[in-house]
Structure to design on (123 residues):
């Protein structure tokens, strides 16, 4: 049965190779753009994506999504309480000591966990 496919207007630029960015732990050939709300547990988060390009994080991190709590006391969640639309938290405490909330429709560059597990099983 056919599955719907989303197409995003986004530019994915090359990963920066400089002292500010940790080397990628996985080959980005399997990377794809997804909505923050569609990020699954175990996905490797590489960058925020927009029509202007990919804003790579200094360190990629493994997503552990959980519901957004606007009353969270982490010091970051409170900044999205007045944003329009739903919010998701992609990580809580790693790699930062705070939550990592995103607007649910924000675009994220990820390496899906399914691809990570398939590759690691073959190695």
């Amino acid at each position: 049965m056919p599955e719907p496919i989303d197409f995003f207007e986004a530019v994915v630029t090359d990963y920066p190779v400089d002292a500010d960015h940790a080397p990628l732990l996985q080959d980005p050939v399997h990377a794809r753009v997804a909505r923050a709300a569609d990020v699954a547990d175990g996905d490797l988060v590489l960058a925020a994506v927009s029509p202007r390009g990919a804003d790579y994080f200094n360190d990629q991190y493994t997503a552990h999504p959980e519901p957004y709590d606007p009353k969270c006391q982490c010091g970051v969640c409170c900044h999205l309480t007045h944003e329009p639309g739903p919010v998701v938290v992609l990580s809580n405490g790693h790699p930062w000591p705070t939550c990592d909330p995103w607007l649910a429709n924000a675009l994220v560059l990820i390496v899906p966990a399914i691809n990570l597990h398939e590759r690691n099983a073959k190695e």
